[in-house]
Amino acid sequence: MMADRFWIVFIVAFYCLIGVLNASAGDADPVYRACVGQCEKTGCVADKCFQHCRFSSSGVPADGSSYMQEPLYWQWKQWYCQSDCRYYCMINREKEREMAGQSPIKYHGKWPFKRVFGLQEPASVAFSLLNLAVQFHGWVSFFILSYYKLPLRQSKKTYYEYTGLWLIYGLLSVNSWFWSAVFHSRDVDLTEKLDYCSVVILLGYSLILAILRSFSVREEAARVMVAAPLIAFVTTHLLYLNFYKFDYAQLILWAVWVGITRHPSRWKLWVDVVGGGLAMLLEIFDFPPYWGFLDAHSLWHAATIPLGYLLWSFVRDDAEYRTMDLLKKAR
């Protein structure tokens, strides 16, 4: 048993730590490449020069010492010579392409976003933080409802059989949106891996939760039997290639359950399922950012804000409904 757990943890960690190679049309643009190469030699793009691109008389970059003299905020952001050269060369190149009537292209796997206060993708950061706030509010309100407003058993446990599962879901959601905000503020290897791993864990757990609630699995032994193969499947290469399949799977499960249940708040979950399906189209049909800020991915983050609030509203209603139903049967 301990050996099995070790290998599950090892495989998850292994796939989370694998880097993603991003090759884009902008990377191969000779004008862009020449601009970056010249900037790394001179420390300037057009009339804009960077303090941390200064060179010593021997031709060695003085990036390290000058970089450490920057404010702590910028040190954390890790804006250094190469990243600044790439950013301003990209901005200048996109202006030239726009004047020539050409559409935006991706550079190093990303659309040409405009920085705001050092944030790489300010719209996605803002929407991720709003999602985090919604998830945290939902978690707190559900916790207060479950343990302070609804009746408890003599053992001080809740009547609602899924309290612990939803509380874990809330914590995983908060964690996922936190790392999403960090990743979109500054895309480096570490933030990318943390964001990716958080999403993988959340999607895998969400699918398990959807199965347990849809099929009313209440016994611990049965829950383990359902969760174990799914946890193993999360660690496979299929998930690494396309983990959005888990989103579709859980949406289908909830849609089927909503279609057959007589739950008084089923309309909330129905709106959440339909809205979630429509929002996921934004991830499929990608497009360049409007005004350098709003792309398909950031709008997907925006769409999940009301959906997250509606989901937690349903969870609270579900807790009340199940608690009252169990109390009636107990009498």
Your description of this structure?
- Helix 12 (245-260) runs antiparallel to helix 13.
- Strands 1-2 form a two-stranded antiparallel sheet.
- It is elongated.
- Strand 1 (44-45) and strand 2 (48-49) form a beta hairpin.
- The protein is 69% helix and 1% strand.
- The protein is an all-alpha fold and 331 residues long.
- The protein contains 14 helices and 2 strands, in the order H-H-H-E-E-H-H-H-H-H-H-H-H-H-H-H.
Which characteristics define this entry?
single chain, 331 residues, mainly alpha, two-stranded antiparallel sheet, 14 helices, disordered N terminus
Low-confidence spans: 1-15, 17-22, 55-78
Structural class: mainly alpha
- Encode the helix/strand succession as letters: HHHEEHHHHHHHHHHH
Query: Which strand order spans the largest sheet, edge to edge or round the barrel?
Result: 1-2
The total beta strand count reads: 2
Helix content: 55-70%
Terminal CA distance reads: 42 Å
Strand content: under 5%
Provide the gyration radius in Å: 24 Å
